[in-house]
UniProtKB/TrEMBL annotation:
CDD domains: Csm2_III-A (cd09647). It comes from Thermococcus chitonophagus. It comes from the Archaea. This is CRISPR system Cms protein Csm2. Pfam families: Csm2_III-A. GO terms for molecular function: RNA binding. The keyword Ligase does not apply. NCBIfam families: cas_TM1810_Csm2 (TIGR01870).
Length: 158
């Protein structure tokens, strides 16, 4: 998926979200097998999700706390302090649900779709610490790619 093409489509089509929403739902269905995604597939999914979030006017600051919490857990895993990160993953799940719940009507749908994609991955991690430790880096990279492409595609900060 070419992000420059996506960026141009976002500029030209105000209803771009309606074209990409079914793809986001498909990604959510595939999220349970997140660990099997190939790197190119993961990147395409991140671009697709980011384009949907931009088309729905979601601001980066609305998911920044989640990214910060995920970054802290990733640091814990990288430095070997990962004896059990299931509690950390549970807190991320709570924060994600809270973020969706407190969102305004105009951005709630975008956040709900992001939740639909991330929740199955986080749920699996909260149930199996080995899975969490082995796949948390990939999850962090995926979320970071969503935020990066959100900015690249024209997503606003605040």
């Amino acid at each position: 998926m070419d992000p420059f093409v996506v960026k141009n489509q976002l500029k030209m089509d105000k209803n771009y979200w309606s074209k990409v929403e079914p793809k986001v739902k498909e990604i959510a269905r595939k999220a349970e097998n997140f660990q099997d995604w190939e790197p190119g597939e993961t990147l395409d999914y991140a671009i697709t999700i980011a384009s949907y979030l931009v088309s729905k006017d979601l601001r980066t600051n609305q998911i920044r706390k989640i990214l910060e919490m995920v970054r802290n857990v990733e640091l814990k895993v990288k430095t070997g302090r990962d004896e059990d990160i299931r509690d950390d993953v549970a807190r991320i799940r709570l924060l994600l649900a809270y973020t969706v719940g407190k969102s305004q009507k105009n951005t709630r749908e975008a956040l709900e779709h992001l939740y639909m994609v991330l929740e199955p991955i986080l749920k699996k991690m909260s149930e199996d610490n080995n899975f969490a430790v082995n796949n948390f880096g990939k999850f962090f990279d995926f979320l970071q790619a969503i935020v990066a492409y959100h900015r690249f595609l024209g997503g606003k900060e605040k």
